[in-house]
Design a protein that fits this description.
- This protein has 188 residues and is α/β, with parallel strands linked by helices.
- It has a single domain, classed as Collagenase (Catalytic Domain) (3-Layer(aba) Sandwich), CATH 3.40.390.
- Helices cover 36% and strands 21% of the residues.
- The protein contains four helices and seven strands; from the N terminus they run E-H-E-H-E-E-E-H-H-E-E.
- The strands form two sheets. It has a five-stranded mixed beta sheet with strand order 2-1-3-5-4, with helices on both faces.
- Helix 1 runs parallel beside helix 3.
- The longest helix has 23 residues.
- The radius of gyration is 16 Å and the shape is globular.
- Bound molecules: zinc ion (ZN).
- The site of zinc ion has 7 residues, from helix 3 and helix 4.
- Zinc ion (ZN) binds next to helix 3 and helix 4.
Length: 188
Amino acid sequence: MLLHFIFLVKEEELEERKWEFQYVEKMAGFYKSWIERVFSKKVDVQSDEMIVRSGNRPLIMDTPILLDDHSSRGEQIFHFYLAYFRPLWTDCTCEGYFAENFGMIWWQKSPKKGDIEFLREKNCTKVSHELAHEFLRMAKFKNYKEIVHEIWDKHLFASQPFEHYDASYKRSENDALFATLDTSSLKT
Ligand SMILES: [Zn+2]
């Protein structure tokens, strides 16, 4: 199956956020390997930018627009949207949302250019949250919502550290480029 990451970017921010998209491209490669290891599922990955033009009247962006986009691109592809807005409604605890072959998170804009640590801790982690829901659901886990939220609560409220990985996708605290939720109880 294909997992397609789509980085939404406003036209006027295209240049200043180029480095974030470059991070997304690296992150896609990482998640290919992570999904195979944690969920025993082979995926191909792709990453693209989706440039949003503001035009004369502001478009109210919310999850239904992304779900429509997902349908028009093909529902057999897993589309994962990295959006500059929060989902208005979600029962997730991380400002993200998922459905069948669909994921989205609020990809927070880094306050300063080149701050990889910010992208890793604030955004990369949320991607793992939504991916975990959907791959557990595909693996027919009944509690695919609760399992992830129990782990997430430990990260948020019990100081459980995220897992950190370096550029070769090896566990590392020193040269960490990527971060995910704790996978020790997740292996499918
Ligand atoms: Zn969730």
